[in-house]
Specification:
Helix content is about 65%, strand content about 5%. By secondary structure, the chain is mainly α. The strands form three sheets. Strands 1-2 form a two-stranded antiparallel sheet. Strand 1 and strand 2 form a beta hairpin. The radius of gyration is 22 Å and the shape is globular. The two termini are about 40 Å apart.
């Protein structure tokens, strides 16, 4: 009996629960029963363990400035509930922001913990990446979804090559929506491009490109192209300036071959849909310029997705002007309604995370939050650069523009896992230089 209790106690150690927090948040939408996530259950055990063992965190955590900010953000979010016009929605968002604080506490505990726990976490993250890609492929070609996936079929596309590829669908993986899943795939690119094994690099890069194409998120496809261009320029620099010829050439050729292969498979299957959605990217950029720079909404076109998103954006910026410094209060936009084509819409999710934060929390909180994210990336890329920290830093930079493809990132827990993991794997004395997943 005592041995059993000891095993249970070891399984529920604060370090194991911290690993569970980071991983369950990363997979949060997919691991649930109705509205109860596995993340919620682990959070309860984590907080209870922390209550009985506060010395693991307090008071020395406040010396860590990067961890201090989630405390301040949570405090200000709760304070903003005093002047919000929608207390119920504001409380929901405040809970989601407080989850970010808890996730960071988990990363802080692991950062000062034993090396073997970091090794375990790294292995689990590799498994999560593999499961995400495998599940995406099963959805694309066989319409096999996990039980907790949204049952809606997103834009099924008829193909031209028949057999098992008769009908394909936009993959949602663990993340309900193809845009959310595409964003996760985009954030995986820096890690995949760092793979040393040539066969693994060829296979995984082909799969992730295929998943991104079938995800059919215009913003993610554009950012993928930008990332590849940056990668080629960086590899070319190493080739011409540092004369590391063989490795540089291979590092360019394999991803490019994978990209061309994946693009061919996708375009051969759904070229009309691909071209139609990709042409909308120019419209997206044009309309964004008109709204933000010219304060003109007359350039809305007939694409229903772009049309409604930019109406939301324009109206939200108008609300921002009503309370620019302290914002409308968390959840304040959910009280606002606009009329578009004789339909009433709620501004609960405006599909533009940064404007949502700017409007609800105000200029000062927005600038502080954005600066904190940039500092996370800068530390990973420039101050404590290792292979793994560089990958996380690049993922954070990709997240900044990429997050606008999803409806409301306030409810998107994987972003907090990304920030916390970037903090954990950057400047960690338990990690050797040039260590990688």
């Amino acid at each position: 009996m005592n041995e059993t209790l000891k095993k249970i106690h070891s399984y529920l150690s604060i370090e194991n629960l911290s690993i569970g927090m980071l991983c369950s948040a990363l997979l949060s939408p997919g691991l649930r029963v109705d509205k109860v996530y596995l993340f919620h259950i682990i959070s309860i055990f984590f907080l209870l363990t922390l209550v009985f063992n506060p010395k693991k965190v307090f008071p020395h955590i406040f010396r860590e400035k990067l961890v201090l900010f989630p405390f301040l953000l949570t405090a200000y979010s709760l304070l903003s509930l005093l002047w919000t016009s929608n207390l119920e929605e504001g409380m929901k968002k405040a809970v989601m922001i407080s989850f970010g604080l808890i996730i960071f506490l988990a990363a802080y505990i692991l950062k000062s913990g034993p090396q073997k726990k970091l090794n375990q976490l790294s292995k689990i993250l590799i498994v999560i990446l593999g499961c995400h890609l495998l599940l995406s492929l099963l959805e694309i070609f066989f319409q096999i979804k996990i039980p907790t996936a949204d049952i809606t079929q997103y834009s099924p596309m008829k193909t031209t090559i028949g057999s098992v590829f008769e009908v394909v669908s936009r993959p949602t993986s663990f993340y309900w929506n193809p845009n959310n899943s595409s964003l996760i795939s985009l954030l995986c690119l820096p890690f995949i491009f760092r793979i040393k094994n040539k066969l693994q690099l060829l296979l995984l890069s082909s799969v992730v490109f295929l998943v991104i194409f079938y995800g059919n998120s215009r913003g993610v496809i554009v950012l993928t192209a930008i990332f590849i261009i940056g990668f080629i320029l960086s590899s070319s620099y190493h080739f011409f300036m540092r004369r590391s010829q063989k490795s540089s050439i291979i590092s360019i050729v394999i991803p490019l071959f994978s990209l061309i292969t994946a693009a061919y498979l996708f375009i051969a299957n759904s070229s009309d849909l691909y071209l139609e959605r990709f042409q909308g990217t120019y419209q997206f950029a044009e309309t964004l310029f008109d709204i933000v720079i010219l304060d003109d909404t007359s350039s809305f076109k007939e694409d229903p997705s772009i049309d409604i998103r930019f109406y939301f954006l324009a109206e939200s910026l108008k609300r921002y002007k009503d309370a620019p410094f302290f914002g409308l209060g968390l959840g304040g936009l959910a009280s606002e309604h606009i009329k578009n084509k004789n339909k009433k819409h709620n501004l609960k999710s405006i599909h533009f995370y940064w404007v949502e934060l700017l409007t609800e929390l105000g200029t000062f909180a927005f600038i502080s939050y954005f600066t904190w994210i940039l500092i996370l990336a800068y530390r990973a890329l420039r101050i404590y650069p290792t292979e793994i920290s560089t990958c996380f830093g690049l993922s954070v930079l990709l997240f900044i523009p990429g997050v606008i493809v999803i409806s409301s990132a306030i409810y998107f827990l994987p972003k907090w896992s990304l920030f916390a993991l970037t903090y954990l794997y950057t400047g960690n004395s338990n990690l050797q230089k040039n260590s990688h997943l």
